Amino acid sequence: MAKAKTAYVCNGCGADYSKWQGQCTACGEWNTLSEVRMTSSAAPATRTARFDGYAGVASSAQKRVVSLSEVDLQEMPRISTSIGELDRVLGGGLVPGSAVLIGGHPGAGKSTLLLQTLCHLAQTLPVLYVTGEESLQQVAMRAARLGLKADALKMLSETSVETVTDVAQQLQPRILVIDSIQVMHVADVQSAPGSVAQVRESAAYLTRFAKQTGTVLFLVGHVTKDGTLAGPKVLEHMIDCSLQLEGSSDSRFRTLRSHKNRFGAVNELGVFAMLETGLKEVRNPSSIFLSRGEEAAAGSVVMVVWEGTRPLLVELQALVDTSHLSNPRRVTVGLEQNRLAMLLAVLNRHGGLMTGDQDVFVNVVGGVKVLETSADLAVLLAIVSSFRDRPLSQELMVFGEVGLSGEIRPVQNGQERIREAAKHGFRKAIVPKANVPKEPIAGLEVVGVTRLSEALDQI
Questions:
Q1: Which residues are annotated as a binding site?
Q2: Binding region for ATP
Q3: Which residues does the record give as ATP binding sites (predicted)?
């Protein structure tokens, strides 16, 4: 019997060494090397052969070299989850053999969303839900509280990756859920569960199993205190789709955003409402972000942002107040703070409005995070409205990128944004001139502007 080989892997960056040393020369961290026992070549070959037999595809046929033109371009069939917002974020449904990673803060609803999805799919497909953090009684109590039909759902309480794959080979599920990847462990890795080495090896083992058997794999991932996914960065490279479920404890709404998707659009957004019966999809997200008061307030304006493959109307609020500090504050919620400082400089230079002695606060209502530059013009008009204490019309919609020389630049999908505003009853839109549609839209006055001064004249 051959002696098992060992290696030492850094828990911080994943670099490996043949012997232990105090400092990782790749990332410079101290005391981060963990011993990893290397498996023999016979064990993986045997297990891989079993995977191939389960899939019913010969290994020799899979490994033969072909030219790119010979590859079959027929689209892979997708499995609908019956939840429209989840299907939208996934790019149209589940792809056989894909690995999906769902992350989020504790209590965001990751396990609830997957439990709802699998209870429905279990009525027509073989599925397996593996829980390593909760007992089977806890999961059963949640399903009963949510009123789910769970008679066909197969459950397994296990943290060993080898045991999970052995059970999966017997049951042959179409969909496999691992809740969560941070508690899973591989026997050949000597570090504790949750470490970089364990998470990396467990994810690689399960992903290889999913690819070779055509199983849809869901991995639930924890996040750190700053909101990033816990574990090695290579985990996000292994999987096909990375989703993030976000939501604050004081709000019943949850947003599901895709940060990586090999089968659909990136930054696609799905909106859910947390109710007593679980997560319910919100089919018209713009309606929940436009719950404005009956009277118009200064500093409030509606803008249209593009989320994945659809427009989304959100309200933006600004508050400008005299500062009593030597260094006035610039606070943003849902926007990039450095961009606010740049826009205030443009407003001073090309709009004739100096806010150097004012505190400026900007907030995107509803907890939506705006990552694109189409909100620039709306931010400036809201700041001017608050500074002058003059409310803008509640039937006004604004979008456009503002350049450093005061020009208004066009944004992508401009006409689709304008049609979305017209559908919700807006009467006037201030947009970049290049985004003005050629054909007039009934009931909506579209004003195209090329300079910041022109937009200020309109209000």
A1: 104-111
A2: 104-111
A3: 104-111
